[in-house]
Amino acid sequence: MTVSLVGGAQAKPSTDVKEVKQAFHEAEAASEQVNQLSVQIKQTNQEISDLSGDIDHQMVDYQEQKDALSSAIVQQHMDAPLGPTVNLLGSGDPDKFLDGLGAVQALNSTRADQLEKFGKTAKQLKNRRDQLEDRETSLAADKKDMAKERDRIRAKFREAKRKLALLDATQRAAFGNSDINLDFEISASGRAAKAVKFASAQLGDPYVYGGTGPNSWDCSGLVQGAFRAAGVSLPRVVGPQYGATRHISMSQLQPGDIVFYGDMSHDGIYIGHGKVIHAPHPGRSVEITGVGGFSRAGRVG
Questions:
Q1: Which of 33, 208, 209, 224 shows the greatest Cβ crowding within 10 Å of its Cβ?
Q2: Lowest-confidence range among 69-73, 89-93, 110-114, 285-289?
Q3: What is the distance between the alpha carbons of residues 149 and 299, in angstroms, rounded to a whole number?
Q4: Helices (H), 80-111
């Protein structure tokens, strides 16, 4: 007896190059969020370091003023005993110490200026400590958010690779092929020329999430590196890079201008003839592409 199977083999799920490009683009957008959080974390760490330095400096003044007042009040206590109030004066807590001072302030009218100065020092110290606590809380939150964003990148990247694997061999080969041939002369001058020259020298370098050189790049890392070579300091992330430029229309583009996606998830450097040098996504290298897809532009300087 022959048994026949109902239905044929399941067809391999299909996708197209456009879908794969979108998947990698979403992963890159998540990477830019991590870049922004990295900038915030770096800034917060610097603020924490500055605040800690201020607190250390103010603690020296605080302790010197406290010791001077304590010595004077102890001597005054020997002349006119104040009872248990004196115990507060030995407290390491600035607020409690000031409470103790308040109880004897009438007996220290001759030291009014000294007390006022100490009160200001104690208040400044408390403010700095509050600011430090706030920045430390912010730092912890940003680190937590960055961990989540990195997980999101991994998930997006896995999905992009899954879709890439569904392409046929010819499509995959075309998708991974980067155009690194610069077959025309770029007309630029000054800082723009230096930025374009640097970017051109990176053609063929691999894309890496978070890459800032010297041998691998992400999109905003390449733009930042190119203009750093031209003596211009740009922010690390796409959106702030756009904010640091003079906004122009796409019809005004000149070589050395920066072009951006409308959602601020990607950017590159315009080189003329409708072409852009950019770092696209993993699996590709720094390459030359058409200006299509870029909808905003900015000029440095």
A1: 224
A2: 89-93
A3: 30
A4: 85-88, 94-104
**Fold agreement (17-165, 179-299):** no
Q: What residues contact residue 155 under an 8 Å CB cut-off, 6+ apart?
A: none
Q: How far is CA 8 from CA 31, 66, 265, in A?
A: 42, 88, 43
Q: What is the pTM of this model?
A: 0.70
Which residues, other chains included, contact 100 with Cβ-Cβ below 8 Å and sequence gap of 6+? 85, 86, 87, 88, 89, 91
> Does the domain formed by 17-165 have CATH 1.10.287?
yes
Mapped onto helix, strand or coil, the DSSP state of residue 151 is helix
What is the spatial distance between Cα 89 and Cα 86, in angstroms, rounded to a whole number? Answer: 5
H-helix or E-strand spanning residue 11: none
Give the orientation angle of helix 219-229 with respect to helix 17-79, to 10 degrees: 70
Tokens of 197: 């020259």
Could you tell me how far CA 51 lies from the centroid of its own chain? Answer: 20
CB-based contact 139:48 (threshold 8 Å): yes
Domain ranges of the chain: 17-165, 179-299
Give the right CATH number for 179-299 from 3.30.590.10, 3.40.50.150, 2.115.10.20, 3.90.1720.10. Answer: 3.90.1720.10
Contact 217, 202 (CB under 8 A): yes
In this prediction, residues 123-131 reach a mean pLDDT of: 91
